[in-house]
Every structure is written in C-alpha cells, then in structure tokens.
Amino acid sequence: MKCLVCQATWKESKGAICPQCGYDHAAPDFNNAQTIQRARQEFRDKTTAYAPHKRVKRWDKMIPYVALAIGLALFLVWLKACSTWRVW
User: Fold this and answer.
1) Which residue, among 35, 37, 7, 1, has the nearest Cα to 21 in the 3D structure?
2) CA torsion angle for 13, 15, 17, 19 (degrees, to 10)?
C-alpha cells in the first residue's frame, strides 16, 4: 500500500494503518480530500523535516561545542598534571 498522506509504502498484510504517520486507510472517509489535507498538516506539524526551527532548541545546537570545550579543558588539565616538563 502507499499512504495518501506521507507517501510511505508497506505491505498490505501489515494492515491499513500507515506505520509512519498513523493514517487509517480503512476509515470510511479515507479518500476525502479535506481529511487527507488535514492529516498531511498534522503530519507536517509533528515531524522535524518540515519545521526544524520549531523542534531543535538552541541548547541542542550548542551541545557539541560545549562538549568540545569540556574535552579541551580536560585535555589541558591532563597535560598540565601529567607532563614532566613545564608547559605553562
């Protein structure tokens, strides 16, 4: 089957409900244009592919840089503590 909402495909033996977006293709009004458009809008609202700025927070973008800074600080502390010659 091919989903009318998210265009995902799956085997008919798995059922009539889309595994990706959850749209029920066995419902009585599954082929109604307004129902499909409403389901598409709901799918877009809950996925990050359509609105990454709504889901990805500033902290999520900063985590790699914070980890890099902490790693650099730990490396410098280790270098200072374990070196036999004077670095600083």
Assistant:
1) 7
2) -50
Cα-flanking dihedrals φ and ψ of residue 26, to 5°?
-100, 0
The two structure tokens encoding residue 73: 């600080």
Tokens representing residue 51 in the block: 């609105």
What are the extents of the domains in the chain?
A: 12-53, 57-88
pLDDT range class, residue 86, cuts 50, 70, 90: low
CA dist 32 and 75 (Å) reads 61
- Say what the pTM is: 0.52
Higher pLDDT, 70 or 16: 70
Q: What local confidence, expressed as pLDDT, does residue 43 receive? A: 86
CA angle 7, 8, 11 (to 5 degrees): 130
Percent helix, percent strand, percent coil in the chain, to nearest 5: 50, 5, 45
**Please, are residues 1 and 10 in contact by the beta-carbon 8 Å criterion?**
yes
Task: Quote the pLDDT of residue 84.
Answer: 67
